[in-house]
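Co-fold these.
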Amino acid sequence: MLTAPLPADTTTGPATTRVEAVMRDIRQRIENRSLCAGKRLPSIRSQAESLGVSRSTVVEAYGRLTAEGLIESRPGSGFYVGHQLTPFSLAETQPGLPPDSDPVWVTRQSLLADEASLKPGCGWLPAAWMPEQDIRRALRTLSRRPLAPLTGYGTPQGLPELRQLLSHRLGERGIPAAPAQIMLTESGTQAVDLLCRFLLQPGDTVLVDDPCYFSFQAMLRAHRADVVSVPYTPHGPDLPALQNCLLRHRPRLYITNAALHNPTGASLRPDIAHKVLLLAAQYDLTIIEDDVFADFEHRPAPRLAALDGLQRVIYVGSFSKTLSASVRVGHIATRPDWIRQLVDLKLATAFESGHFSAELLHTLLGSGSYLRHMNGLRARLADAMGIALERLQALGIHPWHRPDSGMFLWCTLPHGLDAATLAHHALERHRMVLAPGNAFSLSQSAAGFMRVNAAQSLDPAIYVALEQSMEACARRQA
Amino acid sequence: MLTAPLPADTTTGPATTRVEAVMRDIRQRIENRSLCAGKRLPSIRSQAESLGVSRSTVVEAYGRLTAEGLIESRPGSGFYVGHQLTPFSLAETQPGLPPDSDPVWVTRQSLLADEASLKPGCGWLPAAWMPEQDIRRALRTLSRRPLAPLTGYGTPQGLPELRQLLSHRLGERGIPAAPAQIMLTESGTQAVDLLCRFLLQPGDTVLVDDPCYFSFQAMLRAHRADVVSVPYTPHGPDLPALQNCLLRHRPRLYITNAALHNPTGASLRPDIAHKVLLLAAQYDLTIIEDDVFADFEHRPAPRLAALDGLQRVIYVGSFSKTLSASVRVGHIATRPDWIRQLVDLKLATAFESGHFSAELLHTLLGSGSYLRHMNGLRARLADAMGIALERLQALGIHPWHRPDSGMFLWCTLPHGLDAATLAHHALERHRMVLAPGNAFSLSQSAAGFMRVNAAQSLDPAIYVALEQSMEACARRQA
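Predicted complex below.
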C-alpha cells in the first residue's frame, strides 16, 4: 500500500512532525509486511519524492530508525529492513480509525455489542432466532451418550456419520461429493483459511469480489497475498472486468459466495456461472465457493461447485449462520487427491476439529428439526426484509438490489453521505453498529453504501438513531 | 532439504528412472515450498553434480517439467519455477513412508486407532480417564442456561469469566497475567499456530528442542520457517549448544515445553531456566512456552513465563489433556500491547473461538470437581508409570530419564533397534501405534528412542506385541 504524499515542506530544516510521519510510514510497512526483513528500503531520493518531503527529512528519519534497530545501514548499498522481530499487524493504521483501513472493525464492534444493542451492521442472526429448544434437547441427548464424543479426539478427517450426511445434502444441490471428499473444520472461516494455506504462497495474487465479505480481505492480508477485485453485479461478477483482471493479474485463486453473496445478497445467474467457469479454465484459476448462507435460499441458485463437479472449485459450508454460531463446525468438499494433504495441514496447525461440536451438529441435522427450523427462519426473514426495506426507504436509503432471500440488504445512502462517518457517529452517539460499504470494498468505491441485516433491524429505535446520525453527518459534510 | 545424491549413472543415455528421480526431486521441492514460484532452479551443471547424474539426465528432466508447465525456461537465463498452482504438501515424501519424513504420522495413526486399539505411542489419556460424570453434569447445566452461549458468538477476546479464572490460576503459578492479557483460542495447537503467524515471516529461523513435540516441526514447516534445534537434557536445553545455536543461527523464536517436556517428560531446573532467559535477552529471542501438561505436575517446576513476567515469554495452555480433548479451548497469556493485534488476527483467520466450549470449560473449572479429578489423575498416572517402567525394563527398554510426573517416558530400545522399523512392524502386525524417536527429532538422532505413554500402556497385550515386533525387527536387522 502506498502512502499518500505528505503536504509539502514549508520549513527549510526537517520538521520533527515530518520526520515522524516518514518513520511512521516505514514502521507500518514493516508491521504489515509490505516491507520484509532483509528488504532494501527505497533510496533517500525516491522516498523523498514519493512522500513529497525533503531529502534531509528522510535522512533524519532513516537515521533514527537505524538507531532503533528497525532498519540497518549498509554503506555503499543503502538501508535495509533489520532482522528484529516485528509482530504482524493486520491494521495498516492505528486502532479506532475508519474501517476502510481496519479490516476487522465491523466484526469486532459486532462481537463487542451485546444482544440488547442496536446492530443492523452485524453479520449474523439474533441469538433468539436460533433453534433454542432443539439445541437444549441435543445437549441432553449427548449428555447421555457413550463417553468418547465427550472426552476424546475425533478422527483426522472428521466424524464419518456427519460427513455421510453432508455428502447427501451436497448431492441434493447437485454437488457430487463422496464422504471421502469431505473434511470437517472448526468453522467456515477456518476452512477458507486452511485452503489459503494449502493453495497460496506469500505474494500470490488472489481475486475477490468488489464488494466482498471483509474477512476475506483481512485473511488474505494475513496470508501476505496480493488481492485484486472485480465489480459484483446483481447476477454475479462483471464478466468483462473479470476477463480483464485474469489477463492482467493472473490470480491463482478466486474466493466468492455464489449464492446470497455477502454483502450484496445477489445470486449467480446460470449463464454467468457457466462463463465464470469457462474463464477459470482458460486462465487456470482455482475457486473457493463459500456457501455458508446456502440454507437461507428459497429457490436454489446454481452452484459453481455443482457445474464444475469439484474439479477446480472447492466448496466450503457451515451451520454457524443457521443453527448456532457457538457450536462451531465447518466443512470443505474438494478433489479426493487433495483431502489427504488438507487433513495433514489441519493436524499440523489445529490438531483436530471439535469432536463434540460435530456430534452435536450431527444430532441436530439428523433429527429432522433442522428442516422445520429453516422453513420457519426463511419465512421470518422474508417478513423482516419487507419491514426493513420499507423503513430504510422512508429515510431515503435504497436497496442496490432486492435479494430473493437471506438477511443482507446492500443499500445506498442519500445525499452523498459517507458511510464510514455515519458508522462512527452511530457507534459513538447511539452504540449502534453499522457496516459501512468501504469495509467490503477493496477498491474503496463503496463509501456511499452500507450493508443492513434485516433480521437485526426490527427495532424501531434503529431508524430513529439512523435518522439522527444521518442528519448530524449531513450537517457536518455540508 | 537437500536430497541425497542418486547412485551414479551406469548407462550412457539418460535412463528413464534417473530422469524421473530428478523430476520427483524438483516436484517435491516445489510442493514443500523450498523452491517458490519465480525462483531460479539450480543450473544444469550444478544440479547434475549435486544429484550425481549426467547433465543429459537433468536436461531431459527439465525439458519434461517445462512441458508440464511446472517450470519455465527463460533463454539465456535458465529455468524458473512456474506460476502454476501447486498445493502445499507437509510430507516431503510419499504417504506411508517412515515417520521421519512424515511429520504427522504418529498423530494420524493415533487418531485413526479406536479406543480398543493398543496405542502406547499416543499423546493423550484414554477417554475413560477423563471426568465423564463431571462433563455430563456440566452439559445438563448448560442445557438449562440462558440462550446466548448456546447459539451466539462470544466476545472477540473470549469469555471474560473464564479469562478471570485463568488469570487467577496463572497467578498461583507466579505468572502475572491480568484477564486483559489473556486471549482464548480454539485449542493449544491453534494458540501456537496463531502466535507463529503473529511473530514469523516466511524464512525466519525458529528454535525447537531436540527431541520436541513433532507437531511443532510440522506446524513450522507450514509457516515456511527454517527450523534449528538444540539437544534437550533431563533439566532443560543444553546451554552451550543453545548459546552456540543462538550465535550461529540468530533464531527469532524458541518454542518449548518448560515443564513435563514432550516427549522426554523432563522439567526445567531453576538455574537453567534463569540462564535460558539471560541468553534470550542477549540474543533478543522471543519464547513460546507451551504448558499444556502443567496440571499433571506433582511439584511445580519453574516457568519461564513466571521468571520473565511475560515480557519476552508468551504462555500457552489448554485443558485438552486433562479434561476433554473433544471440548476445545486454549489460551494465550502475553504482553498487553500484543493482545489487540492477536485478537484481530484470530478474528480474521478463525473468526471466534468456540463460545460454547468456553462456557463448558468455565462450568467445569468453576465447580471444584476439577481439583478432585486432577488429584485422582495424578495418583493414577504415578501407578501407571511404575507399571510401565517395570514391564518395559523387562524387555530391555530403559527410560532415558525418570519423570517426576506426567504420562510420557522417553525410552531407549535395546540392541540398536530402529524405532521407525519397529513402529511400522507393530502397526502392520499388531495394529499397535508406537511413537518412534525420530518423529520428534529434527536432527534425526533419536532412531533408537521411542516415546511411551504410561496411561496407554497398561494392557499386558502391549508387551507381548512389543516383544514379538522387537524380535522380528532384530532378526531383520541382523
